[in-house]
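Record type: ASSEMBLY
Status: queued
Input:
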Amino acid sequence: MPHREAAVVAFASGKGGTGKSFLTTSLAIALHRRGRRVVVVDCDFGLANAHLLFGVKPVYTMRNVLDGGVTTEQSLTATPHGPMLLAGGSGIASLCELDAGHMALVARSMQWLARSFDVVLIDSPAGLAPQALLMALAATHVVVVTNPEIAALTDAYALIKCLSRQPGCPELHLAVNRVLEPGLGLLTYERLAAVSKQFSGCSLHYVGEIAEDPAVTHRRLGQEPLLVSHPTCRTSLAIQRMLATMQQQMAGLEPIVCTGGGIDQRMTAQLARW
Amino acid sequence: MMRAPILLQSRERLWPVVRERLDAIELGLELVLDGLDCSHGQHGFVDGLARDGAGAPVLVLLAVEGDPLLLPRVMSAAEFLARNEQALVHAVPEGNYCRGAVARILVIGTEAANAELAALQRLGLRERGLPGLELCRLEPFRLAGTERFAVSWIDVAGPAVGVTGAPIQEPAAPSAKSLASPMPAAATDDPSDGRVAGDVRQAKSDGAADDGRFEELLDHGRSELWQLVEVLCDRLDPAVRIEREGLRRRITWQGRPLGQVVCRDGGLRATAASGQEHTLLSKSDVRVFGDQLVRRYAELAGLRSHCSVAAPTNGVAAARGSSAGAPPVPSSFDGNGSTPRVQVRNAAVSRSQPPARDTLRSAMVEAMLSPEEFAALAESQNAAMPEEPPG
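Status: finished
Output:
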């Protein structure tokens, strides 16, 4: 039966600390300010931190959903800046320890979210664990977040290579964070895209760069998100530009009418390859 | 052309047919010895002494039309069991019975013996403190030229329960023994048509045939494991059902089998649709079995279609169109008339298992960078990074 489904964007990276959570939460706020109903799903269950960036203390997390104690709707946390958050809950067993039954439950939660919101942003766990791949492959778009340093670059390429070889791989996009000079992000993209095309035969779409900004790295807990406190700073403007590019590349980030299986079925399909 | 009754009504000729197919009547039921005299010859022999899946003794009697001694024979068998239930463990060592397993009597009748079965239904052995009695009726029918019989379980505490009520239709998954000895020609279809006779379908009314022994036989640890399986099924899809059937629990999705769990000798034996068997001893075993259930579910639901595509397909359209354009699943997995054990017999090869390279875990291996890839990235990095002035 045809049904409406939100645009689902997964933010992934081959290496930790590239700024996935920062980008996810910032873009969520920016999207909310454009009148969209946005939910952020923090799937980095082991080291979830999206709630810290939003400055909220969730009562319920994904763990409560997995335990069957609350529904997905009940587990959502409203953030002061608009987007809803399904927190991952730091310190709980990592997603890789979840069994197929739990992942099936995650799939059903995702289905409910995709039908209830306009945009679902997934803060994926870093690395190439099966659960990270699962979340990325269930999305409609994947934004690989990397830094221009060689370690992050090789890990990002490994992730792109791995994802592109999976059946049902969504479109891959690249965001370069913490660039030292303007334009370095584009250069990084061009090289990475060339290597990806040459060796893996996959295409990348560039969504933009975010400059290295001490205001981001030195930000303390409890402070408002940069997009709220300094909406005209260069990082906030870069985020706005990135969002505009994403909307161009991702069909406006509009919900779609889904005639086939939804995100739950895509997840289950990938789950069958666990 | 009029055909003779499929099932013979004579006890002497019916017993050889039934004795080979006890496992099809009740999963795990196997004959130990024929001809048990427990009434000093007064009421005739109990047709067979069997062992069920839980390791309990089962006295099997046939009910045929016009058998005046059936009732006293059942009574004497019940009294015999009440006296010697536990002694049978030592007295019949070839039965390999489990100490403490509850013995019972199973009376198998044909449609011609309805009156006898009805009389037994009113017997009320439990009220008299005698071992449990189970009644079932074999009802033959012809299907596609082959002859089969359905097993209708009769509620001894209430009115007879027929094959109505959406019986669980399942191929017999015949054992090698039963395949090797098909029904006698007189009791089957015309053998000249080349069809294999003796394809038994068993159908028990949902719930009526289940006496809760499955749960009773599980210790605390096993019970927890079984609950994990139940939770998994509940989470997987609302249409996933667990069908209760004696010592077996069949897990189905829209009527198509995903797997089954059998309580055997106090343990849990799970069989995935691929035929792969797991003894459920720990949570990790349940996890492995659950993994198989999910795979099978995904396959039946057409969710694995785009996963089976060899070449990567960029673009969300490929993923979204997966359900609509699902390629046909292999015929052995069409879910209609296939049981896990038939899968084993017919296919032998586990085809629901993805190839080793086609799993998310194996994908990680492929992600390893080759020296050429690393060199290309490093070169690009050198070109991209701004040069710092020396010193």
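Annotation: The domain at 3-41+117-271 of chain A is CATH 3.40.50.300 (Rossmann fold).
Annotation: The beta strands of chain A are 3-5, 7-12, 38-42, 77-78, 84-86, 119-123, 141-146, 171-179, 205-211, 256-258.
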